[in-house]
Amino acid sequence: METHKGVSDRGGRTFQRFSVDTNESLHFEPCEDSSPSPTGIEHDEDNVFIKDENEENFGRQEQHLEQHHNDVLQTLSQRHNERAAGLVEEKKSKMEALYSQLLSCGQALDASKELIETAQEIYRTPDKRVFLKTVMPIIKRIEMFAKEKVDLTLSTKLDFETPQADLSDVKTMMDSVNAVPAPSAPVINPQMSNSATQTSLRVCWSLFSDDTVEYYDLYYRPVLEDTLADGFCQPHVSTVKVKETHCTVTDLLPNAQYELWVTATNTTGISPASEKALYMTVPSPPVIKQRECTSCPDAALIRWESGNTNPVDSYTVELSEMDTDGTQSSITESIVAVPTCQCLIQLLSGRRYLISVRAVNIGGPSDKSDAVYISTSGTFFYFLEETAHPCLSISEDGFTIFYGDEELPISAMALDDSAFTRCVAILGDLIPVRARHYWEVEVDEGTEFRIGVAYEDTERNSYLGVNGSSWCMRHILSSSRHKYEFLHNGWSPDLRITVHPVRIGVALDYDRGTLSFFNVNLEQHLHTFQCHFRNLVQPCFSLDNPGSLTVHNGIEAPEYTFI
């Protein structure tokens, strides 16, 4: 694990560590106090700003009026052209009607002239017989012509129609000459890092420079999983009215996703809504699982629960060393970009630390979790409760197991896959570090037990020490004496221990490949297994008859245990 450190004053500047899974570290910028400027200078700057803003507004208004003037002239010109084209069409229609009527009158005059000339010609005929023979048809033609009435009235009016012109759009344009145009849709900005808290969001947006806006309406609502699945169940939309192009929305849920959009309003109207943007509030603080935190002189394994419904981007583990007088050091180290809910931290031996965790998303880091106290004077662990045989119970402090003599009902014998079924045993949660580990076990004199180490996947339907995945010291109580065996794969060397050990020390050394047992009160070596552990092992404890067993850990290993 790479680290990056710096010196800090008592003000509490934060040190950085790279996490195992990232090449990025937190970035800090010095915050320099800016000295206040004289009042006169600030006032002059305000005046200059107001003057520039007025000139900019005047320029926009002038450009806006000129555009309106051009639009009105263009609309009136279009109306004139349309009306002139209509008059030309009406004139053409009237002329065609009059021309047709004149043709009809001309044809009637020609027919009348022809009849008159024909009648005169017959009248002048000297031959009476010819006259009588031809006069009757002419008379009939004259009678028929006389019956035909020629309409001499004009078929079309000489006056042109003057329909009322529809200039409502021009009137609307003229009425809006003194108004500013409605603003365009604002552009909401993506969420910036560290722009949120657990219950608030800072939202920013922008607008086109030539738009005039009186105020903005910011709309927001939570994005719920049920909403995504069922579009008909939309959460309530809240609204905030603001003057600036930014707003801090409060009273929100922690680590929640919100959908936001904004509109701009002036005297003319409301702009279209901006595109929707998604923002996240900061997560709630994680919850450290103290019963699942383990340590040794070289490291600590910290586990925690997210404490949030929605996933977070990463976690930051912060640790500060405790001074000799018990006060917390002002120097803090951070391990950033931790992807999961646990972190193995390299520490210095013989020190005391306070460790806390923050959850991080795009909105920023959460508040610190409640700190856990870690001492690296010795190996510290709790029992793995899920591995316990149903007949075992664990004390409230988590360091003593009890095997009662009462029989359990069948319903209570329901076993987890990881629980021991034959041997009344339990495993310890040792930190996964190949180093030196030491703990002590205290057992009543009249209790038969097995203590040692085993692989995590050791057979649950088997006794400790009778297989190749466990090494243990066994105490057998007989009527005459205490018998002790050091079992592995069902075999034990022939050893005799004369003094019953009340408190037994267990020393595990991965580097040497040894597992040793000691009589703590006498500082007496009992036995050492020489073995090469192919995998990490866990402490194991078993009671072969009713009684209790207490583990003492977190203590410094005596010098004689690793000689």
TrEMBL record:
<protein>
    <submittedName>
        <fullName>Fibronectin type III and SPRY domain containing 2</fullName>
    </submittedName>
</protein>
<dbReference type="InterPro" id="IPR003961">
    <property type="entry name" value="FN3_dom"/>
</dbReference>
<dbReference type="InterPro" id="IPR050617">
    <property type="entry name" value="E3_ligase_FN3/SPRY"/>
</dbReference>
<feature type="domain" description="Fibronectin type-III">
    <location>
        <begin position="286"/>
        <end position="379"/>
    </location>
</feature>
<dbReference type="Pfam" id="PF00041">
    <property type="entry name" value="fn3"/>
</dbReference>
<dbReference type="InterPro" id="IPR001870">
    <property type="entry name" value="B30.2/SPRY"/>
</dbReference>
<dbReference type="InterPro" id="IPR003879">
    <property type="entry name" value="Butyrophylin_SPRY"/>
</dbReference>
<dbReference type="InterPro" id="IPR003877">
    <property type="entry name" value="SPRY_dom"/>
</dbReference>
<dbReference type="Pfam" id="PF00622">
    <property type="entry name" value="SPRY"/>
</dbReference>
<keyword id="KW-0175">Coiled coil</keyword>
<dbReference type="InterPro" id="IPR013320">
    <property type="entry name" value="ConA-like_dom_sf"/>
</dbReference>
<dbReference type="InterPro" id="IPR013783">
    <property type="entry name" value="Ig-like_fold"/>
</dbReference>
<feature type="domain" description="B30.2/SPRY">
    <location>
        <begin position="361"/>
        <end position="560"/>
    </location>
</feature>
<feature type="domain" description="Fibronectin type-III">
    <location>
        <begin position="186"/>
        <end position="285"/>
    </location>
</feature>
<dbReference type="InterPro" id="IPR043136">
    <property type="entry name" value="B30.2/SPRY_sf"/>
</dbReference>
<dbReference type="InterPro" id="IPR036116">
    <property type="entry name" value="FN3_sf"/>
</dbReference>
